[in-house]
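Reopening this ticket.

The earlier resolution said the output was attached, but the attachment link was broken on my side. Pasting everything inline this time so it's all in one place.
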Amino acid sequence: MCGIAGLLDPGRRSTGDVLDVRARDMVQALHHRGPDAHGVWTEPESGIALGHARLSIIDLSAAGSQPMASASGRYVLSYNGEVYNAAELRVELEHEGHRFRSHSDTEVIVEGFAAWGVPETIERLIGMFAFAVFDRKEKVLMLVRDRLGIKPLYWGRLDGRVAFASELKAFAGLPGFPPEIDRDALAAYLCTGYVPAPASIYRGISKLEPGTMLEVRADGVVRTHTYWSALDVAVRGQSLPMKADEAEAVAQLETLLTDAVTRRMVADVPLGVFLSGGIDSSTVAALMQANAQAPIRSFSIGFHEQAYNEADAAKAVAHHLGTDHTELYVSADEAQSVVPKLPQIYDEPFADVSQIPTFLVSEMTRKHVTVALSGDGGDELFAGYNRYTQGLSVAKALRRLPGPLPDAVSQMISLASPSSWDSLFAILPAGMRPRQAGDKLHKLAAVLAADAGDYYRVLISPWAEAWGLVNGTARPEFAPFAEAVRGRFKTELAWMQYADMVTYLPDDVLTKVDRASMAVSLEARVPLLDHRVVEFAWRLPEEFKIRDGQGKSLLRQLLCKYVPKKLVERPKMGFGVPIDAWLRGPLKDWASDLLDPNAMGQAGFLDPAPIHAKWAEHLSGRRDWQHFLWNVLMFEAWRRSAR
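Inline output:
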């Protein structure tokens, strides 16, 4: 795993020395992603500079250094990621007469470009990657991101130049980079907790979207091409569903996942697995151990607050599988000490509270290994989120309510405040009293009032109308929630899964894991997001995913072949921390400072009045606004750190 950066000056205004200095400064900013070596390649007559920060995983020798040129000299590559079928591709290339200087997958990729061209080579790759390749013959820079968006890549036009990098911090020292906050991106962030692609928090800098190749020609013209479409894969999977019975489907999934996992166990450095004790990570760990010659290394963290602790479940799975297990119990003080680091780690506002334990488990794991496999992606592919069953229930209810009735019910619920609803429910016995009844009813009211294609976005947002807090912006548009997209899906479940796969998965889940792991120079690999597994999952009948109101049915059946059912069948837990209590306790002063109405008013980005009101409600204990407040706090902490 590495960091890449560089720039193309179509006007050829930059000397070789300037190109070299700029690229080296960008690479230095990415040192944490690649502490083992830094490299820069320039060609002043083409106005191009490619930079690379290396974390050595395969072929640790200097022969694997980057940027790397093909033997012909035509292509020069700076690459971040891992390609897991490099050995097979290498054999193909050797049969065609190519001779290799190293054992690195980088050389396989760049020689593939020389033999087959860039587009065809990309189609052959199994792996995670973000790379920049310069075609010296055609004078074309190509930026490419993997199919699912596992690896990040930002780009933008700055002072007539095209610049790119793995993280935003690499742009900071470039001329023509005024760090102007994009208010539309900020509005979308407040609604979701992350900045949705293709935007970044800065105007003029974009995220390259998953499955996309961007070309910059010698005259500066930019063209983009989608080489793998999640929408096409999802729609095609629905139209060509699997005909196998459930037992056959489990067998096929086992074969496919075993291949995906074992491919990701190849490394020239120590390797392990994140193990939370949940379905996804336990499946990955089980398949790793079944295909290893010795106990694999597994890692988990625990919290003394039992409502947030999964360490016991992880330990039980590890004991059954026979892994070499390491766990770390984290105190509240240790977890809270991560909070000041978050703006620097994530570079732009990012508000998934599981960023804290993800960083802590990465930091602990890096002390023992350089590569860790992760179970991310299982919820999106196999319908594991509780919100899917909730969303299906809401959609079913909405279809039954005639005409104006949903709006009428919404208005009736909204007449009473959440605290008033809580008081009403307080007359019930404690065992029958729903937790946070008022908040849940008001969420239902918002869902009932939403447009037909917007109810799921409202359901999953901490405050769906938070965009209204940003001065000078309009309501954000989220493409996957548009009726034109929703109408291509035969079922509500398929549409919800697709929406998450192209928004929440790359922009939240994978961003969280990439930044947290790379902050400590740890490579995280995600076998469940092998694109062949993704394409398989989209062909599964929905009854193989959700059964009796419980998701991931097929994945559970596979795991039960390796782990006793009693270790599998337990309530789903999030990977979180007690932010609600911390904001009322040890983080109160920190939060009060960031939420100061005068400071926010002077900054001019957010309307402080409704935020301050929610902060007061949260402190009083009448309402739990932790998720919305965390969104605001992460923006304010980032904004102050970026000044």
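Reporter confirms the inline version is readable. The chain has a mean pLDDT of 90. The two ends are 30 Å apart (CA to CA).
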